[in-house]
Write a structure and sequence with these properties.
It contains eleven helices and six strands. Helices cover 47% and strands 12% of the residues. The chain folds into two domains: 143 residues, Rossmann fold; 67 residues. The mean pLDDT is 92. The protein is globular, with a radius of gyration of 17 Å. A six-stranded parallel sheet has the order 3-2-1-4-5-6, with helices on both faces. The protein has 222 residues and is of the alpha/beta class.
Length: 222
């Protein structure tokens, strides 16, 4: 049974993970600072605020976290505003869920301004009843805060709420908090693919066929 759905955006709905591999490095380079190797992987699970605090401390940046966040967003905003695309089948899947009357929200580690602009351009923002961000919730996806806030907004309990994620750490967090999980393939998480398949309640190579997904759901029990 599915009464509510929480969708990650980057890597699940939006084909955007490539920009995040280098966003922090690009930002530092714009100030003449050489980034350490593997910086993108180090920051992969962080919220925007956590990432800004990490960069501030690690690189002794003489600015506050809001200024760093604004700088990173400026670095990537052109990509989100004009170039990022939906992953294959995502629009069809989201609109099928909406037509089926399933409550849907988005939960993202990215900041609101860039993802809202992208979703508006791609004509899917109306599929979501609300967008939750880790920055506004106050914790990254290593904690369940964003999923719990989303479920509370929808009025659903975790066991009837399905979380769609591409990243292993986020799937683990949601599952540990009692949510049902759908692992969605993205190349950025291919090194963790076996573990993602093992722990996800349902694993999808891509979001496309809503009817096929609904048939995979376990029967509802009172």
């Amino acid at each position: 049974m599915i009464k509510g759905a929480i969708f990650d955006l980057d890597g699940t709905i939006l084909d955007s993970m490539s920009i995040w591999d280098n966003a922090a490095e690009m930002y530092l380079n714009s100030m003449g600072i050489k980034a350490e190797p593997g910086l993108g992987k180090t920051m992969f699970a962080m919220s925007m605020t956590e990432g800004a605090e990490f960069l501030k401390d690690r690189y002794c940046l003489d600015m506050d976290t809001d200024e760093i966040i604004a700088g990173i967003n400026h670095t990537i905003e052109d990509f989100y505003y004009y170039h990022v695309q939906l992953k294959e089948g995502a629009e069809q899947f989201l609109k099928g869920m909406k037509q089926a009357g399933i409550k849907m929200v988005a939960a993202t580690s990215s900041d609101r301004q860039v993802v809202e602009r992208a979703l508006e351009r791609l004509n899917v923002i109306s599929c979501f009843d609300r967008i939750f961000t880790c920055t506004e919730t106050g914790a990254g996806k290593e904690k369940p805060d964003i999923y719990l806030a989303a479920a509370e907004f929808m009025g659903t309990v975790p066991e009837d709420t399905w979380v769609f994620e591409d990243a292993l750490h986020a799937i683990k967090t949601a599952k540990s908090a009692g949510f049902r999980t759908v692992g969605v393939y993205d190349a950025s998480s291919k090194d963790n693919l076996d573990e993602i398949k093992r722990i996800s309640d349902i694993y999808l190579e891509k979001l496309d066929n809503i009817d096929a997904f609904l048939r995979l759901l376990p029967p509802y029990k009172n």
